[in-house]
Write a structure and sequence with these properties.
The chain is mainly β. It contains no helices and eleven strands. Strands 2, 4, 5, 6, 9, 10 and 11 form a seven-stranded mixed β-sheet that branches. A four-stranded antiparallel β-sheet has the order 1-3-8-7, with no helix packed on it. The mean pLDDT is 95.
């Protein structure tokens, strides 16, 4: 099971780091994606990191502001979010790709989200 955490209230231009932690399996064996959903909007695919960490993908809306990374020692995947905007307000989720695949090839359309997500609110 995966659980996203690290959300909160932040002012525009601020930063947050989200964590995706796993229980019962090793995250390094799988590609992991980050997704978000705002009230009244469709779910948005944000980023993906392959199992090796060698490949990362980003949505155009977050490229250059968000960075995905792995931490093998803590069995976690992070999403560093900088230059946050009010439109980044949403519930953020992490998920596995393509029935526990190792690549990001299917990250935009074949994934499983876990847990209740973590709320990020960007507001002054």
């Amino acid at each position: 099971q995966l659980q996203a955490s690290g959300g909160g209230l932040v002012q525009p231009g601020g930063s947050l780091r989200l964590s995706c932690a796993a229980s019962g399996f090793t995250l390094d064996d799988y590609a992991i994606g980050w997704y978000r959903q705002a009230p009244g909007k469709e779910r948005e695919e944000l980023s993906c990191i392959s199992s090796s960490g060698a490949r990362t993908n980003y949505a155009s809306s977050v490229k250059g502001r968000f960075t995905i990374s792995r931490d093998a020692a803590n069995n976690a995947v992070y999403l560093q979010m900088n230059s946050l905007k009010p439109e980044d307000t949403a519930v953020y989720y992490c998920g596995t790709i393509g029935a526990y695949g190792s690549s990001c090839d299917r990250w935009k359309y074949d994934y499983d989200l876990w847990g209740q997500g973590t709320q990020v609110t960007v507001s002054s």
